[in-house]
Amino acid sequence: MWLRSDRLLAGFIAAASLIPSCLSATPIRHGADWEPEYVLVATAGNITINCKSRYSTILNGTSPGPTLHLQEGKTTWVRVWNRIPDDNVTVHWHGLTQRTAPFADGTPLVSQWPIAPNEFFDYEIHPEPGDAGTYFYHSHVGFHSVTAHGLLIVDEAKNATKPYDYDGDIPLFFSDDYPREDESIEEGLTANPFVWSGEPSAVVLNGQSGNASLSNATDDTCKPFIINVKPGKTYRLRFVGGTAISFLMAGIEGHDLTIIEADGHYTKPVDTSYVQFGSGQRYSALLRTKTEVELLMEGKRDFWMRYEARDRPTNPWGWAIVHYECIGLEPELPQDLPETQPVPLPTNVTEYTQWMEYTLEALTPDNNFPRLEEVTRTVYITMNQMVMDGFYNGSIVGGLDWVQNNLSWSEGDYEVGHAAPYLVQAYVTGQTPDYDAAIANGGWDPQTRAWPARIGEVLDIVWLSNSGPTRGFDNHPMHAHGEHYYDLGSGNGTYDAARNELKFRDYTPARRDTTMLYRYSSSSAEPYHTAGWRAWRIRVTKDNVGAWLLHCHVLGHMIMGMQTVWVFGDGDELATHIPQPYIEGYLEFGGSAYGNDTYDPLVMHWFD
User: Tens digits of per-residue pLDDT, 200-235?
Assistant: First the structure.
């Protein structure tokens, strides 16, 4: 683990002096007369989750942390303090990577140095018009984000008109609860012999697991969450997949929903009876409540919301209560959980692997969608488990990694070599991945272990699910840092680009940042069998130059190496993108852009 050191990284700083400076950039001292809009303080301690105590990393003393509101066209500063004495911290602004200042993506050893104990870092975020939507923030170190997370909402610009009318806004933030603590889980996942994290014991909604009744729960953290509504109104429900692994479905008894947003972008309306989402995904859906006459005819004012996981050895579930605030009906909430299931949710894999596929379109037409004939390179990435220093004979004997075209990347492995973040290396040494070497090696450069892309390229990235030595398949919510991509859909079997392109003759896919590579069966007859794909299209421009993670958002899989580091642009293009005086305080661990109790940092205001 990197901890604070006052020793300069002499080689990097010396190299930095070789980069031409630009006098237009002037760092600003963030002293006593400067205040951020928000302050997040990371701590570790015992909190109550699912009616039990767990030692966890949290932000501002709660899980989830406070809701942050940003606005289109306006810069917001968030100061993140690390008050954990023995671990580093970062915060990633999930879905807003392209709207953060350089070195502020929150990915340690990719875009920035982590925040050392008792230091802080000021993050600058500037949503653009069109970014209004649902996001979240979370730590990007180890297993922290199972509890160190919170909702982030980008509101429309001042005086802008919302494209959909609604009377209330109801966030629904879902997360997982694990019996084991973070450190134990991380140690097991990286150990030889390998030890799996185990399965979540509960799915938590807004801090409550909903698996105990109001009458039997020992405290509020395992009671059903209460969603208060009024008759004859329309509410925006924001479903946020803050889970570590759980792939969820949620529906409301006697009510349908209308999808209006996916991953921070408004979509054309699509009606549905339920919503499904994996880790990292977000959807907004309109809920139109019943009228008072309808409620009186039904003789009830409370309706159950059911949520449950899919495709795991054990699938946790929970309940929430949609409670109508109205007169003339029994006011008491239901004290017991339902004896029968009042909310039908699909169990057929064919049904839920097709949910919203080739359906969601941007509300505002996008004329920038590249067609197949514009694609300059297709990168096929096969993902499977690999036994390390051992073998598989019905059980795993040795360590276990996830690999992408035989490459595993995790923060812990990269950190062992005391390597600087990729973005820092690119600035201080000019080193970026060797493009030709990568092309000859399945897309990644063997020396830097990174995946290069050139400005002007239009990439099709095709993720392929492989059963590996254990013959097993998993769901993988694939997430991209940087610019949102065009999601080209998914399917079982083999990807056929020409056949798939036919679906875009009268349909333009919505831009996304997290979509699911599905598990179409639990296992294969033979090891290392490929079945299932998810495809993306990305146009690489000067606006998305940088170092970006593209990875599975399942926390355990990330720690096991299911991450790829991409570098868009070469060393000269990166140096041109950010002026030299801006970067000097960001080039060393605990540099002058990081503050502490006795030091006020020098920070560049990128969006001023």
Answer: 999 999 999 999 999 999 999 999 999 999 999 999
Q: 273-290: per-residue pLDDT in tens?
A: 999 999 999 999 999 999
pLDDT tens for each residue of 6-22:
323 333 333 333 333 33
* Contact in structure between 192 and 390 (CB atoms under 8 Å): yes
Q: How many CB atoms lie within 10 A of CB 517?
A: 21
For residue 333, pLDDT over 60 is answered with yes
What digits encode the pLDDT tens for the residues 42-72? 999 999 999 999 999 999 999 999 999 999 9
Strands (E), 103-167: 119-125, 133-138, 149-155
Which residue in 434, 429, 439, 430 sits closest to 459, CA to CA?
439
The radius of gyration computed from the CA coordinates of the chain, to the nearest angstrom, equals 24
- Assign 3-state DSSP to the chain and report helix, strand, coil percentages, each to 5: 15, 35, 50
Residue for token pair 């100061």: 79
Q: Is the dihedral of CA 405, 407, 410, 411 positive or negative?
A: negative
Q: Are residues 20 and 580 in contact, defined by beta-carbon separation less than 8 angstroms?
A: yes
- Nearest residue to 230 (alpha-carbon basis) of 162, 288, 171: 288
**8 Å CB contact between 137 and 442:** no
Q: How far apart are CA 230 and CA 182, in angstroms?
A: 41
Give Cβ neighbours of residue 33 (< 8 Å, ≥ 6 apart): none
Smallest Cα–Cα separation from 269: which of 361, 141, 340, 336? 361
Give residue for tokens 């062992």. 416
First vs last Cα of the chain: how many Å apart?
34
CA atoms of 348 and 274, how far apart (whole Å): 14
